[in-house]
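Retro notes - structure team

What went well: the batch runner handled both jobs without manual restarts.
What didn't: labels got mixed up in the shared folder, which is why I'm recording both outputs here explicitly, each with its sequence directly above its tokens.

Job 1
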Amino acid sequence: HRFFVPVGALLVAVVVWLVPVPVAAQAAAAAAKPKAAKTWTPSRTLDGQPDLQGVWDFRTITPLERPSSLGGKEVLSDEEAATFEAAQNKSQNRDLVDPKKGGAGYPAGGVVPYNEFWYDRGDKLTGPKRTSLIVDPADGRLPPRTPEGQKRAAARAEANRANQAGKPRADSYTDRGLGERCIAGFNAGPPMTPAAYNNNVQIFQTADSVAILNEMIHSARIVPLNGQVVPASIRQGMGVPRGRWQGDTLVVESDNFARETSLAGSTANMKLTERFTRTGPDTLLYEIAVDDPTEWTKPWNAQIHMTK
């Protein structure tokens, strides 16, 4: 043992003395080479499908439509985003509302139903700091309404004014909105759009179906992947969905709605396409394409970035 210890130390010293030159050369060569872009491949379920399962958070302060004050600016710089977020967080904070003036969206003297503690609308822009969730049309705004859509919008506005004044106009419970009756949560969709709170959704997968469970009023959709479709004579509140895989993206097409959904302005004639794509270990891109010729003069698309 007294022999091997010094010999071992000598060998280590020789190796250390010999290695630095080639290692240093290799390190310099590696630093000079351009780094390849890292790619991410989603894990698979036991059935071989891209794994979308988990609880996903889609809260964001990014508005559906681009504020007119931002003009044609699609994306904000870090500094601009910080300024925008601070202004929005202040204007939407229900604890900062002057009781004499009423809250945002409430008439003078109105009562704010919840204080800030109960809200969970998000406080930051998500994704690439876009100024709107709408990506098409390019102006980040909803397309113009059809004449029929304009009439319905005017009727909704008048009904809202009557509600705020304490004089709701309804001949029956069926005249009240689905959101007010907690039949359709105002962000549960379809399509799902961020709102004041309950911006969480859980996705489950089996070999032949996908379940989409929203936190808001616990609404659940079962999307068949095996081609089974509810007969056209049966309309459903959340529409009739059909799912399929397009590469690593889950595509869900829905139509045959019973009446409006939680999406303001939507009608029973809406045709909706949703796309779910894992973009990283903790991120999911949710894309929607809305085609409702009864309400809007042309289709429109939006993107929402979810986090696990």
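Job 2
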Amino acid sequence: RFTGLDHLPRSLQEWIRIPEGNLAAATNGAVFMDGPGEFTRFREGLLAFYPPDVRLQKIAARCMKIAQAGQYNYPRCISRGEFVAARMAEAEFIGAAISMAFLLNHAYKPFYKWMHRALIGLPILGSEMYTRLSELACDEETLPAAAPRKSLYRNRIQLVEGISALIIKELRRQGLSNSTSDFLLDHGPSVQDKIEDPTIRTLGPWLDPSEH
């Protein structure tokens, strides 16, 4: 039901096409009874996480989306007074940043309404990302009524850059990117260069088939 397969994924192509939320749902919770052991065997195979090349492809794609939505489009929408578009870019950024945190922890991200809360349990970047994303989403509530709107947006842009910097630092710590840039768009190709499978490499750093 969740994977669309009656067997564990046998190829990188099968792995990469399964929606990540489905994998989270299929591996969540405890198994109370499994006499034959077949269900447990299947689930443990999923819990072993993505093959390395699939994980790298997803991380590369997240680099591109975080950069495009958060570091590039978000401040530009704000500067042009396109605040609905800015909110849409902010939402794309938040989703991609949370997804990146799960990938860096070798964990599947859950359904979107649980994603932010689930960050707290991640040992890598979890608590920092939870706090900063909470501030990004809620800082309008804490800003004094008389404060200029430009202060609000300046703070949000700084939060986006701060979250991006945390991700870049972790990418380099894990040896996933060799780029020294502070723009995540430059890290996507660096991550993708480490993929060994030629079919996955041809997808390019922008594409994650499980997100389409």
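One thing worth noting from job 2: Residues 143 and 149 are 9 Å apart (CA to CA).
We'll revisit the folder naming next retro.
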